[in-house]
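Entry: Serine/threonine protein kinase
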Amino acid sequence: MAASTDGRTQGKTVKSRPRWLRALGADSPPGELEIGGRAHALREVFKHDSWAATALYEGPGGRLRIVKLHRRAPLVFLPMRWVGRWTARNEIRLLERLGELDGIPALAGAVTHGGGPPLDNAVAREFLEGHPLGAREAVPDAFFPRLRALLDEMHARRAVYVDLHKRENIIVGEASQPCLIDFQISLLWPSWMPKGALFRIFAGSDDYHLMKHWSRCRPDQCGIDPEDFRSRIPWWIRAHRFVARPVRELRRRILVRVGVRSGKGRVETEAFAEHALRDITPRERAA
């Protein structure tokens, strides 16, 4: 299955990403891969951005696996394959440490193509049934307490998620249980490094974003009004936003200028938007 062709969004025509803005360059995820030595066929490409292509593959007996192919294409003239190898290894280490926890996908085995050697930029994991957490989805009472317990266990194992501000990384499982996906930028704290102030900052960021989602989806249970979070933002998150927001806005303007996005440059305006952002709205899901 190839990536999306050019399309229209918000009344404007947008183009597919140019090769220098795609993790695999001009290529798309292969139609067939071997995972754990067994052939799997491509079923759907979930997203293909600058850092990775994420796709659904089906194996023997209809078993589904997610394969993430990290960056291998150069960024114009800058070699980036080393970045893809590093982020793939990082994700594998995290899943090895956390994979037996309820709500964390297990690794599915080495990924090869055409019987060749294992792909050093690939990570395969088991598919988790469910849907991305909606903006104000009224999840069951146990959802956020279970997610907090999962994060606490991760922190106890010297792992911090880092990317919890993206609610599309939080999956509501088919039994309404919380699951986490996408450990590309998560951190596994070295055993020789004390869990000091820096670790507490990263862990505190996980906790802050958990409570932010909790207050928006279940304010009745959380006890904190979403508007109150303006006064609760930790100083390190304010500092990060001070730097990150101008960079994000510049990136959006560039994507609009090259015709990949429209309007204000939000990701959902792409011709091939991230799968989680193509999902139905919480209001439609509740209906």
